[in-house]
Design brief:
This protein is α+β, with helices and mostly antiparallel strands. The chain is built from nine helices and eight strands. The chain has a four-stranded antiparallel sheet with strand order 5-4-7-6, with helices on both faces.
Length: about 240
């Protein structure tokens, strides 16, 4: 870290390294601004001010007051607690073999069901749906523009786009039609409790199981959290037995 001297207070040199350490203690959302040329001087001034007041407090012997001692006692307890917690899970890791074993034993967790990506137009009558469908088929209007002009579904703002969805997410009539539709072709009007739909499926994805390579980091993190929690709880029970009598 840089030893460039920023200021000297009562003979003590404050370096760039000290300033960088100071920045680590400010809220993260503010830290991003600290390196901005227009804001940097403000934070440097705050850093110097903090050290000036600390020196003033030392000269006034505030570190000998009961308030100071109480604050330091609390800080000591919090720091010791954090360090002891870190010690309890120190060295815990997850091997590739462990992660792969979990994956193989729980492959169903990584299954992705059949999905479609579709757009639709929702109107209140079969006749209106057929009229719009005919205009689309003749090339008088695109499906997306027709959705914007005629659909009563909020998806009209996105040209009727419903994104990707799986089975069980839509009403049965709509789902059956969408999952059996030919890609790129507009379906005949489909009646549901909401009205009449024209559906255009953009993509049909078959069910699949994600490979170990795709999920190994996710699996490792999950197992690590479980191991850490187990070690933490075991240590906690040990401490309860030792100190809470």
């Amino acid at each position: 870290m840089s030893k460039e001297v920023i200021a000297v207070i009562a003979g003590e040199e404050l370096t760039q390294a000290d300033y960088e350490e100071f920045l680590q203690r400010i809220p993260e959302q503010q830290r991003a601004y600290a390196n901005h040329p227009q804001a940097k001087q403000y934070y440097v001034d705050q850093f110097i001010a903090a050290n000036l007041f600390a020196k003033a407090g030392e000269d006034e012997k505030l570190d000998e007051t009961e308030d100071f001692k109480n604050v330091m006692a609390k800080m000591k307890k919090e720091t010791l607690s954090q360090m002891a917690m870190a010690q309890a899970i120190k060295g815990i890791d997850v091997s590739v073999e462990e992660a792969r074993g979990f994956y193989e034993a729980n492959r169903q967790m990584f299954e992705k069901g059949e999905t479609v990506q579709a757009k639709h137009i929702l109107v209140d009558s079969k006749e209106k749906a057929e009229e719009i469908s005919a205009s689309i088929e003749k090339g008088e209007i695109t499906f997306e523009d027709a959705a914007k002009a005629h659909s009563s579904c909020p998806s009209k703002e996105k040209g009727g786009d419903l994104g990707e969805f799986g089975k069980g997410q839509m009403v049965k009539e709509f789902e059956d039609a969408a999952f059996s539709a030919e890609i790129g072709k507009v379906t005949k009007p489909v009646k549901s409790q909401f009205g009449y739909h024209l559906i255009k499926v953009e993509k049909h994805n078959e069910a699949e199981t994600k490979t170990f390579e795709e999920v190994k980091d996710q699996v490792a993190n999950q197992l690590l959290q479980q191991k850490n929690a187990s070690a933490f709880n075991a240590k906690l029970e040990e401490l309860k037995a030792k100190y809470m009598k």
